């Protein structure tokens, strides 16, 4: 063992030296822009059972958006926007108020959480916050739809998107379940010529940076010992072989 | 070897060879008896293939309000760990918890019980030994995963899919995709590379309510 020990130490030193050459982290799947994800959930108290997802890829001021919904009011237009500049959150049930005697959430009730409109996600034409916000003839229609469009957003909206502060809100609810927008909740807080049901928030989802690439979920502490021992064992067997060779050569020389 | 008498240089050589061999055998025995190798995921997922996925249930249940996960328990494989929130690294990957005994909930993902894809990561091992997700590879489809939220509610997921993906060709788009129903995605390392002294892949476990 006295001779084996230095050999083992030498082998282990070599292995330890190798361990020090830790691999650099793998580069992320970089496309140069920002990828954002949102899960669209029913806005509490508005009697919505739908859901959906949104993905946004932002390159400079160009936002490529995909929104998928299900379970919304059929055959009705659903206004949809990026909301920006508040908490970057969806409103909790506690933000709801009584409207026309019914506890519900109108667009104004949610403003402290998702903020003002940053862009109108229309199917064609203008996408600005001010002029297109309620262009009901240029929003997707139906219970389930897939919306896909690349549009230019302003600096404030781009900044909000990059800082995980933007929220996707899809509007249009059927609070009393009669299959159409009506005035059971009174007129809209945004445009008194429309029913509140047509503009109340239905689905909401905060846009958050999508992770990229694999995780660095291990340091090898349960592998290193084995590796070192196996390599050391291998090295020792080679050494043993070498010594046996020396011995045999010694025999021949004798 | 008949008539061999242990003396002189030959005997020194012989003794040395025996010593080397004995030490090597001792090391090999230690490796063989060592309990430290992490449990392997099912063979069918090791070659980059994944188990055929069960259709995620299209539940109509209303989602829970947000409340971040604080603990993960998988009794069937003896996994139990605290969960801390984590962000992303400079290169965009989900950051790992500093304490390798804790799992990390990606704070840009929904909390468990909300609609969406809840992302929880964990170390397989630290530099010294097993870590939070050391036992993850022992999971099998149908096993139950329990997450305890800050508000005290527990949300149970059933393992529906296990897959091993190489780090250099990781399907970020599908693994991190938002989902309209509650989904749990657990990620840790897999596939140790002896020569590079690093893990080559990630194990991805998917669960549904």
Looking at this protein, list some descriptive labels.
heterodimer; A: 254 residues; alpha+beta; Immunoglobulin-like; nine-stranded antiparallel beta sheet; two-stranded antiparallel sheet; 5 helices; 26% helix; disordered N terminus; B: 209 residues; Sortase, Chain: A; 2 domains; eight-stranded mixed β-barrel; 2 helices; Sortase_dom-sf (chain B); Sortase (chain B); Sortase_F (chain B)
How do you describe this structure in short?
The complex is a heterodimer of chains A (254) and B (209). Chain A has helices at residues 4-20, 107-114, 155-162, 196-199, 224-253; strands at 34-42, 51-59, 62-70, 80-84, 97-99, 102-104, 116-120, 146-152, 167-171, 201-206, 208-209. Chain A is an alpha+beta fold and 254 residues long.
Notes on the protein architecture:
The complex is a heterodimer of chains A (254) and B (209). In chain A, 26% of the residues lie in helices and 25% in strands. Chain A is an alpha+beta fold and 254 residues long. Chain A is elongated, with a radius of gyration of 31 Å. Chain B is elongated. Chain B is built from two helices and eight strands, in the order αββββββαββ. Chain B is 14% helix and 32% strand. Chain B has an eight-stranded mixed β-barrel.
DSSP strand content of chain A? 15-25%
Query: What's the assembly state of these chains?
Result: heterodimer
Q: What's the overall geometry of chain A? A: elongated
Q: Name the helicity range of chain A.
A: 25-40%
The CATH top-level class label of the largest domain in chain B: Mainly Beta
Assign the CATH topology of the largest domain in chain B.
Sortase, Chain: A
Count every beta strand of chain B, where a strand is a DSSP E run of 2 or more residues.
Answer: 8
Keywords (chain A): Membrane, Signal, Transmembrane, Transmembrane helix
Organism (chain A): Streptomyces candidus
Transmembrane segments (chain A): 228-246
Protein name (chain A): CHRD domain-containing protein
């Amino acid at each position: 063992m006295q001779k084996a020990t230095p050999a083992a130490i030498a082998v282990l030193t070599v292995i330890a030296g190798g361990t020090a050459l830790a691999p650099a982290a793998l580069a992320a799947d970089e496309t140069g822009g920002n990828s954002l994800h949102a899960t669209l959930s029913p806005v509490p108290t508005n009697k919505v059972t739908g859901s959906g997802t949104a993905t946004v890829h932002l390159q400079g001021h160009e936002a490529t958006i995909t929104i998928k919904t299900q379970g919304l009011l059929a055959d009705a237009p659903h206004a949809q926007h990026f909301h920006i500049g508040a908490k970057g959150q969806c409103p909790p049930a506690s933000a709801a108020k009584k409207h026309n005697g019914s506890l519900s959430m109108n667009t104004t009730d949610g403003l402290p959480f998702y903020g003002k409109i940053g862009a109108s996600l229309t199917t064609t034409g203008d996408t600005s916050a001010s002029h297109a916000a309620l262009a009901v003839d240029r929003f997707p229609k139906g219970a389930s739809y897939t919306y896909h469009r690349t549009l230019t957003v302003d600096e404030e909206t781009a900044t909000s998107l990059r800082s995980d502060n933007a929220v996707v809100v899809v509007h249009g609810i059927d609070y009393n379940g009669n299959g159409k927008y009506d005035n059971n909740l009174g007129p809209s807080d945004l445009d008194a010529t429309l029913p509140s049901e047509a503009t109340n928030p239905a689905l909401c989802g905060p846009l958050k940076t999508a992770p990229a690439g694999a995780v660095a979920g291990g340091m090898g502490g349960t592998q290193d010992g084995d590796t070192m021992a196996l390599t050391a064992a291998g090295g020792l067997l080679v050494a043993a072989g070498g010594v046996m060779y020396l011995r045999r050569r010694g025999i021949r020389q004798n | 070897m008949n008539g061999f008498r242990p003396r002189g240089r030959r005997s020194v050589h012989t003794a040395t060879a025996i010593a080397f061999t004995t030490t090597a055998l001792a090391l090999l025995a230690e490796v063989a008896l060592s309990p430290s190798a992490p449990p392997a995921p099912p063979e069918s997922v090791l070659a980059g293939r994944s188990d055929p996925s069960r259709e995620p249930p299209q539940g109509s249940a209303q989602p829970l309000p947000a409340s971040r996960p604080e603990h993960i328990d998988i009794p069937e494989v003896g996994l139990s760990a605290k969960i801390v929130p984590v962000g992303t690294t400079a290169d965009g990957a989900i950051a790992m918890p500093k304490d390798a005994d804790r799992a990390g909930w990606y704070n840009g993902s929904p909390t468990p019980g909300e609609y969406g894809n809840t992302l929880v990561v964990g170390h397989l091992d630290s530099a010294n030994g097993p870590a939070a997700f050391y036992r993850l590879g022992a999971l099998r489809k149908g096993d139950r995963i329990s997450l305890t939220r800050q508000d005290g509610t527990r949300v149970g997921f059933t393992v529906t899919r296990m897959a091993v993906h190489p780090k250099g060709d990781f399907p970020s788009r599908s693994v991190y995709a938002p989902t309209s129903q509650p989904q749990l995605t657990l990620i840790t390392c897999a596939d140790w590379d002896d020569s590079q002294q690093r893990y080559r892949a990630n194990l991805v476990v998917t669960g549904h309510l």
